[in-house]
Design a protein that fits this description.
Length: about 200
């Protein structure tokens, strides 16, 4: 199988990390949706990262759906099966993905839209949504720590660490470590793991 996309995308990176933790073999092709748009479009006309090209040529997209397929393939999940545990994990993953989404929107607004066309009320709104997601994530981690052990790392731990690293790299003024110490500590611990070292933010 081939995983298409750059590891500076939190969605591509969480997918690659999940595949590695599930021991699903794949080749990573770091093709950019921006710099190499036409090359990406030849693989997937929608040009959405991550894209997974399966062994039979089927093209899948969206990180959550690709991870779901990988889990079905190996008969193992990075999500807990017990109801209460799963509910909490889903909340954390949802918050982390929301933080990713809002951070990506901020990056696109500043990097892709001409300054004279940037809409300040929209930017303020997205900044507020990002801060709210991080604040709620921090509150959840205050209540309960996430595992940063490679053997017990689940999707909540993966996605939270990936989200925080992306924010630090691309919108660092929106994720201040002193304001969110639990998030910063978890991400730092996860980044030291072998699987994260093998899947670095590019």
């Amino acid at each position: 199988m081939q995983l298409i996309g750059m590891l500076d995308s939190p969605y591509v990176r969480r997918t690659a990390l999940s595949l590695r933790l599930l021991n699903v073999p794949f080749d990573h092709r770091p093709i950019s949706v921006f710099r190499t748009f036409e090359e990406f479009r030849r693989i997937n006309p929608v040009v959405k990262a991550p894209t997974l090209v399966c062994d039979d040529g089927t093209v899948l997209m969206d990180s959550t759906l690709i991870i779901d397929y990988a889990e079905c393939r190996v008969g193992r999940s990075l999500m807990p099966s017990e109801r209460e545990e799963r509910r909490w994990t889903l909340r954390v993953v949802g918050l982390a993905l929301a933080a990713c989404e809002k951070a990506v929107q901020i990056v696109y607004e500043y990097d892709l839209r001409p300054a004279e066309k940037q809409h300040e009320p929209w930017i303020t709104r997205v900044h507020g949504q990002l801060h709210a997601a991080l604040a709620d994530l921090e509150a959840e981690l205050v209540r309960r720590a996430l595992s940063s052990n490679e053997r017990s790392l689940n999707q909540a731990g993966i996605t939270t660490a990936v989200a925080w690293r992306f924010i630090q790299e691309r919108v660092p003024d929106r994720g201040v470590a002193t304001e969110f110490p639990k998030l910063a500590a978890h991400s730092a611990a996860a980044e030291r793991l072998r699987v994260f070292q093998a899947t670095p933010f590019e």
